[in-house]
Structures are given as structure tokens and as C-alpha cells.
Amino acid sequence: MMTRCLLPRLRLLALSALxxxxxxxxxxxDEAWHDLHEAVREGRIVPLPEILDWLEARYVGQVLxxxxxxxxxxxxxxxxxxxxRGQVVEFEFDAASGELIGMExxxxxxxxxxxGAE
Length: 118
Description:
This protein is of the alpha+beta class. It has helices at residues 2-24, 28-41, 48-58; strands at 62-71, 74-82, 88-94, 100-105.
């Protein structure tokens, strides 16, 4: 009788211990963040705030989305912005150099700041 009551409790205790171990171990997403921070710290990629500061100095708009993508080993930032006239524009930057490498959207010139640097 005592064994019957004890067995479910032991199973529950073992399951709780397993969940605690899983929660304590680093997840793949945590490792990706660690790798990203390491790349910024080592200067292999430009910090995102530098990209956003560059955009803010030259374009009017609200950032909707930012993605860091790796394509054929090359990392790029893609920043999607909403302009003052409702236009949506995507800016693409080389993550290693911070250089603007492409823009897509309608009425991009309508987002340019008059006093923005070139």
C-alpha cells in the first residue's frame, strides 16, 4: 500500500527535477544571443544602436521591425520603417561595416531629413 502512494510522488519529484535541470541549462536561443554579443564586442558586427542612430539622422520615421540575417555567411541588418506619409521602407545594412547596401519601398525621398547628413 505504501509503495502505491510513494511511486506517484517519486515520479512527480523526478519530473520536477528534470524540469529544473532543463530550465537551468542554456537554451539554443540563449547561445545565439551570447554569440551575437560576442560578435559585437569583438567588432565583427556593428552594434544595432549605431545603425539606428545613422537612420535617425537621415530619415524621418518609426522603426517597425529589425532583423539580423545571415545569408551565405554574410550578416545584414534589415530595418523596416514607417514614414510620415504611411510609406513602409526597408533599409538593408552590411552588419560587419554598417554600410547601407540597399533600400526598398515607395516614396523613400519623402522620408529624408532636410538637414540629414549624406
